[in-house]
User: What shape does this take?
Amino acid sequence: CLNHQHTDLLVQELQHAHLWHEYGIIQEVVPFTNNFPRADIHKLISPDILHQIIKGKLKITLLTGAWIQQWTGDDSKALMKVYIPAIKGHVPQDVICSRELPDNDSDDNDNNELADTLQALSNRLHINERPNQSVEVDAAEIVDAPAAQAHVELAALPIPGGAHDVSALALELELPNFPTMIQQFLYDQLHVGDHEAPDFDPVAAPSFMGRVSVFSSAAASFHAPSDLSGTGGMRREHIRATTSWRGGPARHDCVLVGTNNEVNCSLDGLAIAKVLRFLGFKYRTKYLQCAVVHWFSYVTDSRDPDTGMHIVAPSTNDDGMPDISLIHIDCIFRAAHLIPLYGADFLPREITPHDSYNVFRAFYINKYADHHAFEVA
Assistant: This one.
């Protein structure tokens, strides 16, 4: 039976050629996990076997009857992003192996050893951990300032023929208080950086009922060093907010929004919101770019113990109406991918992806969407 001691003995006693051809060992190569507990390569499943399990069982057993002509690596990656939430409720909990690490204060020595091992690995790979904090986000506490290492800009051209003034937009969005939201936004912009700003008063606050440009998308550029991307580790993605996507139903992407230090949020100061519209308008000498967003609130102050993901739900005001406000686009960090909590019942075929926000009441924040999402979510 192979083990660390046997491998060390072979390296000491055998020549390079014999070592490689008979045992597949390169004498000069020592894995950096060599001395990590619970990382004994002799006891871990072979990567090739794991690959065959995924490609074989997933494709043949789970996808039988799906009428898939060709299954590619990209298909596998796409499925892996949504697979865990989809099977929850249909398989035993132990099958879903995305649990959080136990606290280091635990009395269980094995758990402490495992936590120390993964922490050492994290340090070795220079991965920055983000601590868990607590829940609710108040839209009034959103900071109208650039998010760290991120930049968002609207599409080059507005949507032609859309709503062009505040009154028309209020009707289109079914928001009778939209003019007041504009006032609140202007008030916030005028008092950015004021430590003792006066209380917002709609009677005294500046008003705007003029022309507004509507945009179907925005581009977010942010620092994602773990992704193989552009110069300096920058990544760029598009965020959509349109009444018709490619001639079909509406598309309203969700985003991570930066909050100030006074707001405790489970994602290290990042709130979740769905973008209803991207807007731009000129007020006095400034051209202001903003987004109409519907806020989500965190259901609990910790991750789901089975999937390892935070759970959010659409937020409402005290009167039961959706919690909607206007924020500057500089508050947006990047897009967020939400996956519904499907439950244990099978879904009717009539439910399509664009129905998700209307049909389901709670959502996972998908940390498996990409490398950078895994780090921040």
Summary: The chain has a mean pLDDT of 77.
